[in-house]
Structures are given as structure tokens and as C-alpha cells.
Specification:
Layout lengths: L10 E8 L3 E8 L4 E5 L8 E4 L2 E4 L3 E4 L2 E4 L1 E2 L2 E2 L3 E2 L2 E2 L5 E3 L2 E3 L5 E3 L2 E3 L7 E3 L2 E3 L7 E3 L2 E3 L5 E4 L2 E4 L5 E5 L6 E5 L4 E3 L3 E3 L4 E7 L5 E7 L3 E2 L8 E2 L10
Antiparallel strand pairs: 1-2, 2-3, 4-5, 6-7, 8-9, 10-11, 12-13, 14-15, 16-17, 18-19, 20-21, 22-23, 24-25, 26-27, 28-29
Protein name: Galaxin
Length: 238
């Protein structure tokens, strides 16, 4: 993001006549603390305050209250990057100037738009990403072809191909799981075995997944809580 602005202090113009013939004009900012003198009124055309100092807007540019020259060699500067000037063949990223023309920003780092191996993931620049890669947190991955992404970590899909949210976790956390062998409850549980998943009714009308041992416990109406089996049977509350 490029910012180009001038913080305006009140500009005061004072005139003094010395010995009845010489006119001295003063442009002052912040009272009379910082002043510049001029001999002709036309010299003051374009004068403004940059912070607490007067400057000529046609010769200088105000970058975060720092006066910079607009002319740098054959280049005329009309933009700021932080308190520095920004030329047409440079890129500004978070107030830092990079000598990359028309670049992209990844956080405070710049990279070329033509770099096919560059991938910005959550503010982290990767310069060796394969074509077609996607982001998993700050890490590149193949976008789901042979790899999966869960909670910012990359896994082989043969091992984990899903992401199971952990209820009531703050911030929300996830566990990876294999959908062929597991189901996602409050945690990944094996499809084969006594552990099953029950969706309990919450007070606000939503349902919360809860794993339970099917051999000893019951998931039954009104689905408020997991109950213990009685005589190896599930009893519906009255």
C-alpha cells in the first residue's frame, strides 16, 4: 500500500521591509519556530508545511513529515513509501522500498509477478512452490491431489484426508483423520469398534458431537446426555 500525504501545519506568511526598500517574506510552520525566507512573492508559489517545516511542493514531496526531493536523476517522484520516496520501477510493501518494478507484496517482502514459483501464504513468502500449489497456513501443498491440509499442517492423503474440528476449543482447533477408517465426532474415532458418535442437543437448539462406548452407554431421546445401559439395554427417560 502506497501512502502519499502531507501533514498540514498552519502556514504563516510574514513580511518585513528593511530600510524601506528590501522586502523579506517568511513562510513559517508551527508558529515562527521553523521559517524560510523569500525575496519575491512568486518564490512562495507552492509553499506548504511538511510537519513543522515549510517546503515547495513542486520541488519536494512530504513523506511522513520528512521532506524529500522530487527529482532523482531523470526521475520525477510523486509517491511515498513510508518516509522514503518511491520511483516508478520500485515496489512499496508496508513502508519498505524494494527495487522490484510492479511487484507483489507478501507482508513487507516484495516479489516479481512473473515468478511462477513464488507463493505468498499467510504473509510468508515461498520462492520454490510447485505450479498449482495452494496454501496450508504458511506452507505450500499440492492443493489436495496427494496431500491434505489440516490446522496449518500438511499430510499425505493416504494417512489423513480429513480435518475434524474439536468442539468448544478456543480458538477452534482441528484433528486430522482418515475418512476411510474413521469418523469425525468430538475426536476422530474408528469406524470398526465400540466407540460411536452421538449428537447431543444443546440449550440453544444446536447439536454437539460426543463420542461414547456403545457397549456400555446409550445415545437416546431426548439426546441431552450420554446415559449408562441398564441390564444391557437403553432406557428412555420418562
Amino acid at each position: 500500500m502506497v501512502n502519499n500525504f502531507i501533514v498540514i501545519y498552519f502556514l504563516t506568511v510574514l513580511s518585513t521591509v528593511i530600510f524601506g526598500q528590501k522586502l523579506i517574506l517568511r513562510a513559517c510552520c508551527n508558529g515562527i519556530e521553523k521559517c524560510r525566507e523569500y525575496n519575491q512573492p512568486e518564490e512562495m508559489f507552492g509553499v506548504a508545511c511538511c510537519g513543522k517545516e515549510p517546503m515547495n511542493q513542486f520541488e519536494s514531496i512530504c513523506c511522513e513529515n520528512v521532506i524529500r526531493s522530487r527529482k532523482q536523476g531523470n526521475t520525477f517522484i510523486d509517491k511515498c513509501c513510508g518516509n522514503q520516496t518511491l520511483a516508478y520501477d520500485q515496489t512499496c510493501c508496508q513502508g519498505i522500498v524494494h527495487n522490484i518494478p510492479n511487484g507483489e507484496c507478501c507482508g513487507s517482502v516484495a516479489f516479481s509477478r512473473t515468478n511462477t514459483k513464488a507463493l505468498c501464504c499467510d504473509g510468508s513468502l515461498n520462492l520454490n512452490a510447485d505450479p498449482g500449489s495452494a496454501c496450508c497456513g504458511t506452507i505450500p501443498f499440492d492443493g489436495g491431489i496427494r496431500e491434505s491440509c489440516c490446522a496449518g499442517q500438511v499430510y499425505l492423503k493416504d494417512i489423513y484426508d480429513g480435518c475434524c474440528p474439536i468442539p468448544d476449543s478456543i480458538p477452534l482447533s482441528y484433528n486430522p483423520y482418515n475418512s476411510k477408517r474413521q469418523i469425525c465426532c468430538d475426536l476422530p474415532i474408528q469406524k470398526i469398534g465400540n466407540t460411536k458418535c452421538c449428537y447431543l442437543r444443546n440449550s440453544n437448539g444446536t447439536f454437539i458431537p460426543k463420542s461414547f462406548d456403545y457397549s456400555t452407554s446409550c445415545c437416546a431421546y431426548p439426546y441431552i446426555e450420554i446415559t449408562q445401559k441398564t441390564n444391557n439395554a437403553c432406557i428412555t427417560p420418562q
